[in-house]
Amino acid sequence: MHIVFGSATDSIRRCNLQLSARFHSSLFPTDLIMNNSLWLSTLKQSLYRHLPKRSRSLRNRRSLQNAGSVPALVSHTKVETLEDRTLLTAFTVLNTNDSGAGSLRAAIETANSSAGADTITFDDSLAGQTIFLSEELAISDDVTIVGLGADLLTISGNEANRLFYINDYQENKLSVAMSGLTLADGYGDFNGPHHLSDGGAIFSYESLSLQDCVFTNNEAVVEGGAIRSSGDLTVIDCTFTGNTTGYYGGAIYNLIGALTVSNSSFDTNTSRHGGAIYNY
């Protein structure tokens, strides 16, 4: 089914739509059963001390596997679950450099290599500044990026590069969220590292949520002037202005995944088909 929103040049001040529903499920860890017999515990400890080192290591590994999911406080920024070694880590961007220590690129690369859902925030000293990118930022793990506010922090592709490429190349979808940012001057063409001509600001294969963001002056050669999504996409309280593409979806091109847009505005986005949104 093809659903098109907006003429070749759109002017949609507020948009609310939902093109599919979601299903949520929860998993609860198994209960942990403890043996409170003092003499048995003492006996086990005594025998344990006489085991060879390799046997003790194997025994510890089996104990962790059978213990269920037990949260342990590691530090004020990190929580560890013993069952799947999931870490929740917070990173702070300290400067507007394109790369290197304290940069957004370094924070994303570290988050990619840190198992589990991470959070990236920005130091208050960056208010009113712009981060200029020499090439796109690749996200391959669950992450939440919390900006200082769309009017206070901009990420720019310098009219030469896409801003974000989101893909972990796995069947299960990542959960990625961004808020409080202006994403500007992105460019999606065949010359990028992934040779993809879609998604001027963002190309995503994962589950992506955007809130309180501004997308402006982004361009893609073929599809999705601002965003090209092939995973679930949720857009809340966002503004799209002056984004363009040659063929489909001046602001958003959505393929296959669920698309939800709430309380968002589209103005002067241009495309041959669907100035605002093209949903395939």
| Percentage beta strand | 35-45%
| Average pLDDT for all residues | 79
Helix content: 10-25%
Structural class: mainly beta
Name the shape in a single word: globular
Which segments are poorly predicted (pLDDT under 50) over 5 or more consecutive residues? Answer: 20-85
For the termini, the CA-CA separation is 6 Å
Largest sheet: number of strands, sense, barrel closure: 15 strands, mixed
What would you report as the Rg, rounded to the nearest angstrom?
23 Å
Strand elements, count: 25
Number of helices: 3
Helices and strands, in order, run as: EEHHEEEHEEEEEEEEEEEEEEEEEEEE
Protein described:
The protein has 280 residues and is mostly beta strands. The protein has 3 helices and 25 strands. The strands form 3 sheets. The chain has a 15-stranded mixed sheet that branches. The chain has a 7-stranded mixed sheet with strand order 1-25-23-19-15-11-8. A 3-stranded parallel sheet has the order 14-18-22, with no helix packed on it. A hairpin with a 4-residue loop joins β4 (78-81) and β5 (86-93). The chain is globular, with a radius of gyration of 23 Å. The chain starts with a strand and ends with a strand.
Topology at a glance:
Layout: E1 3-5, E2 9-18, H1 38-49, H2 53-66, E3 71-75, E4 78-81, E5 86-93, H3 104-113, E6 118-122, E7 129-132, E8 137-139, E9 143-146, E10 153-156, E11 164-166, E12 175-179, E13 182-184, E14 187-188, E15 202-204, E16 207-211, E17 214-216, E18 219-220, E19 227-229, E20 233-236, E21 239-241, E22 244-245, E23 252-254, E24 259-270, E25 277-279
Parallel strand pairs: 5-6, 6-9, 7-10, 8-11, 9-12, 10-13, 11-15, 12-16, 13-17, 14-18, 15-19, 16-20, 17-21, 18-22, 19-23, 20-24, 21-24, 23-25
Antiparallel strand pairs: 1-25, 2-24, 3-4, 4-5
